[in-house]
């Protein structure tokens, strides 16, 4: 039995993900020319996307991470918990939050409020996936890799119960495995 057997359908192939990372990296390079942005990866899901994205950003940058959680199983609890805060000051800095998926908007709105309160010079979001069908709170996302339909996605950092993060693509998890 392999992980592939749990995938109902591949949503984004490895190649498609790399194309998205390359294109977003190019746009970010142009937009942040002459600046040194701080890219903040939201753990754990964003690590694979962030690692590939920064390879395509051709300007000086810093990286940091926050570990935040609002999910219980497959649903957002609506309560955001900060498990690991930043080690870098964002005061007067250009901040780019790197997210794997924007779904309800709850987590991002909470983190954006926190970053703004710390006097960032600017704040933008880059996400690999956007799933607006589940949006509870509007979020202004400047850099979107691709929009996806409803369904529970796994792979490339995205998990179900801490499993499947190591898949090199993004797939739909078979519903019988989480319902």
UniProtKB/TrEMBL annotation:
It holds the Pfam family Pribosyltran. It catalyses: GMP + diphosphate = guanine + 5-phospho-alpha-D-ribose 1-diphosphate; IMP + diphosphate = hypoxanthine + 5-phospho-alpha-D-ribose 1-diphosphate. GO terms for molecular function: glycosyltransferase activity. Purine salvage pathway enzyme that catalyzes the transfer of the ribosyl-5-phosphate group from 5-phospho-alpha-D-ribose 1-diphosphate (PRPP) to the N9 position of the 6-oxopurines hypoxanthine and guanine to form the corresponding ribonucleotides IMP (inosine 5'-monophosphate) and GMP (guanosine 5'-monophosphate), with the release of PPi. Belongs to the purine/pyrimidine phosphoribosyltransferase family. Residues 15-160 form the Phosphoribosyltransferase domain. The keyword Transferase applies. This is Hypoxanthine phosphoribosyltransferase. The keyword Transferase applies. InterPro entries: HGPRT (IPR050408), Hxn_phspho_trans (IPR005904), PRTase-like (IPR029057), PRTase_dom (IPR000836). It comes from Corticicoccus populi. Its cofactor is Mg(2+). Pathway: Purine metabolism; GMP biosynthesis via salvage pathway; GMP from guanine: step 1/1; Purine metabolism; IMP biosynthesis via salvage pathway; IMP from hypoxanthine: step 1/1. Its EC number is 2.4.2.8. It comes from the Bacteria.
């Amino acid at each position: 039995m392999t992980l592939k057997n749990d995938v109902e359908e591949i949503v984004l192939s490895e190649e498609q993900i790399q194309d998205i990372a390359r294109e977003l990296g190019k746009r970010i390079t142009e937009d942040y020319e002459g600046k040194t942005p701080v890219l903040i990866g939201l753990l754990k899901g964003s690590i694979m996307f962030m690692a590939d994205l920064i390879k395509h950003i051709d300007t000086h940058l810093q990286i940091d991470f926050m570990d935040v959680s609002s999910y219980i199983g497959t649903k957002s609890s609506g309560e955001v918990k900060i498990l690991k805060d930043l080690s870098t000051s964002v005061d007067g800095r250009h901040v780019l939050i790197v997210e794997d998926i924007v779904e309800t908007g709850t987590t991002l709105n909470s983190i954006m409020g926190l970053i703004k309160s710390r006097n960032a010079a600017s704040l933008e979001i880059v996400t690999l996936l956007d799933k607006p069908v589940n949006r509870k709170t509007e979020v202004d996302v400047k850099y979107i890799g691709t929009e996806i339909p409803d369904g529970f996605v796994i792979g490339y950092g995205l998990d179900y119960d801490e499993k499947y993060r190591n898949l090199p693509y993004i797939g739909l998890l078979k519903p019988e495995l989480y319902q």
